[in-house]
Write a structure and sequence with these properties.
This protein has four helices and eight strands. It is α+β, with helices and mostly antiparallel strands and 173 residues long. The protein has an eight-stranded antiparallel beta sheet, with helices on one face. The longest helix has 22 residues.
């Protein structure tokens, strides 16, 4: 590994629904993705196009990026940058494989240098998101502890800098 580069986070989970159903959920645009911290994905899902995850009221844009690869229903890759940070973007890749029981989801988040703080913060967050995705798709709801966690984050959203969609657009995202 080159000096200054950090190891990728690679997480895997088995979800007991067809791969197509997982694909539809992780690429759902314009509607709330409950597993993704109750955010809305906006993108036309074409390589080279912009992508952003924002709050349903559009007051906060949390993550922006650029679509790198869309190969339905097996691979979705995009850059990832928290709007509250001034860091280099990292790379998120979702890979979906059919299994006898449903779908294996492998999420890889990497491309960080040792100067990026986001690296330390996303490890637990992605595990909670994958667990919530499994619960949402298999049972139709996310776990109570996750709902409580997301509710607490939502109630404290007023502490976050308001990064509205219009501001992100002005910045070129």
């Amino acid at each position: 590994m080159p000096e200054g580069k950090l190891k990728n986070h690679v997480l895997t989970i088995e979800i007991g629904v067809p791969r197509q159903r997982v694909w539809e959920e992780i690429t759902k645009t314009g509607r709330i993705q409950r597993a993704m911290v109750n955010t809305v994905l906006e993108s036309n899902l074409v390589p080279g196009s912009k992508l952003r995850y924002y709050s349903p009221n559009m007051k906060h844009v949390f993550v922006v990026g650029e679509v790198i690869e869309v190969s339905p229903p097996r691979k979705f890759s995009h850059t990832y940058l928290f709007t509250t940070r001034r860091e280099e973007p990292s790379l998120v890749t979702w890979e979906l494989e059919e299994t006898s029981g449903g779908c294996r989801v492998t999420l890889t988040h990497g491309g960080w240098t040792d100067q990026v703080k986001t690296h330390r913060e996303v490890v637990g967050g992605w595990r909670e998101i994958l667990d919530a995705l499994k619960s949402e798709l298999e049972r139709g709801s996310i776990p109570l502890k996750t709902r409580l966690s997301y509710g607490a984050m939502s109630s404290l959203a007023f502490l976050l800098p308001k990064t509205r969609v219009s501001e992100v657009e002005k910045a070129g995202w």
